[in-house]
Design brief:
mainly beta; Methylamine Dehydrogenase, Chain H; 422 residues
Length: 422
């Protein structure tokens, strides 16, 4: 064994010990799909130039996919030579495997304004020893987490007669028990569930007739009823997770028919937000004696019209960036009233009573999660990993902050306890 191999082996053992017992981030927006990390004992301020950089991994392909982390594996997606690729890294940033998952989305001749938006969208979902990824043009593939070998593959646009979405499919699939759930928005299934072991169809829902939404589904229990909640281009809706039966829906859309932000469920209520001037709303699905649902609108607001940067809740407040209602916002989730507003626009995540706010131009701010004011205690400029804006959502997991930009993923040590560097 060479000296270098001995060092890498020792590092791997140190990393395994350092991260033992810490929570994974196995899918887009984390295990509960609420964009909240359970990490604690994190740094409350950073040095002037930001937290310590552990490593940078390149060669991932261009895109906006975030990262999923489980155990000693990190997985993301990117576009290389007009083909979507899924890449697995170890905790030192070393590429373990890279596999294609179908042709990537390219802007059509009628979409000249969108040429610069090409690149991967959906974040891989990790479940046990399998990686699931849905490409922009409908290739849903299950990979072996260790080897990258394909276990099964289905093109959901072909199977369910879905049209090519205007900006490509942007969804990160949801695993619910033995089902992989996604929204191809086809004639033979708007939302569908496939067997996660072989790709066979378990159920389909054809009640929704809208154009495809660009958000990802979440699972919740409301009024004692399990349900899968998602957004189409014009509605927020919920289905039964075992048969796909439509439980309820409510109108919620914008002039661009582009709903990108996942719902957030809190106290039997559903918070929804959408850009292009739509705004935000708090809904309460109410179960009637007949078993059916009606939907009460508690409040609506033109504020916090989140574009695609995501929102988080903490206590009685919701945080995120607006689109045409400009700036970072904190709203009282019970009333919709604004608590504060600060300049900027971007993505965010939550961990250890702090917001990690990544501006579209690459400034990462550590913000105390309080309704009193925008309180950025530290900030630094993230290096560029290629072309385009910083749209991939940041991830906090295992004492690290992961930031994806274009072709690269960057890992930073943010725990109060030191993390071994490469």
């Amino acid at each position: 064994m060479t000296y270098r191999n001995m060092v890498v082996l020792a590092l791997g053992l140190c990393l395994s010990i350092a991260y033992q017992g810490r929570a994974d981030w196995p899918c887009y927006h984390g295990p509960q799909r609420d964009n909240r990390a359970t990490e604690t004992n994190l740094m409350e301020t950073w040095p002037e130039n930001g937290p310590t950089s552990i490593w940078t991994a390149a060669g991932l392909g261009h895109g906006y996919s975030s990262v999923a982390v489980t155990g000693d594996r990190i997985v993301t997606a990117g576009t290389i030579d007009k083909v979507t690729h899924v890449t697995a890294l170890d905790l030192t940033g070393k590429t373990l495997w890279q596999r294609p998952n179908g042709p990537s989305w390219e802007a059509s001749a009628q979409q000249t304004w969108a040429v610069s938006y090409s690149g991967s969208r959906g974040t891989p979902t990790l479940d046990g020893d399998t990686v699931y990824h849905l490409s922009e043009l409908g290739d849903l593939r299950a990979f072996d987490l260790r080897t990258g070998d394909t276990r099964w593959h289905v093109n959901v646009l072909d199977r369910f007669e879905g049209e090519r979405p205007e900006y490509g499919i942007s969804e990160s699939v949801l695993i619910d028990g033995d089902a992989v759930i996604c929204c191809p928005a086809g004639n033979k299934g708007y939302m569908v569930a496939l067997n996660k072991h072989n790709g066979q169809t378990l159920w389909t829902n054809t009640d929704i007739q809208d154009a495809v939404g660009n958000s990802s589904a979440v699972r919740a229990t409301l009024q004692g009823v399990d349900q899968i909640i998602a957004l189409s281009a014009s509605h927020v809706f919920a289905v039964n997770p075992t048969q796909g039966k439509l439980l309820w829906q409510a109108e919620f859309g914008n002039a661009r028919e582009n709903n990108c932000t996942d719902v957030v469920v809190t106290k039997d209520r559903v918070f929804v937000s959408s850009g292009y001037g739509k705004g935000s709303a708090l809904l309460r699905p109410i179960r009637l004696d007949s078993g059916s649902f009606t939907v009460e609108k508690i409040w609506t607001s033109t504020l916090l019209d989140n574009h695609h940067g995501g929102v988080v809740t903490a206590g009685d407040y919701v945080y995120g960036a607006g689109h045409e209602a400009r700036g970072w916002f904190c709203l009282d989730i019970n009333t919709g009233n604004q608590k504060w507003n600060a300049p900027g626009k971007g993505t965010l995540t939550y961990a250890d009573n702090h917001l990690y706010c990544l501006d579209e131009k690459g400034t990462l701010s550590l913000v105390k999660c309080t309704a009193d004011k925008w309180n950025a205690v530290s900030a630094f400029q993230v290096p560029r990993g290629g072309k385009g804006l910083f749209w991939a959502h940041p991830v906090v997991c295992q004492g690290r902050l992961y930031i994806r930009h274009s072709d690269q993923v960057m890992a930073y040590a943010i725990g109060k306890e030191p993390v071994p560097a490469r």
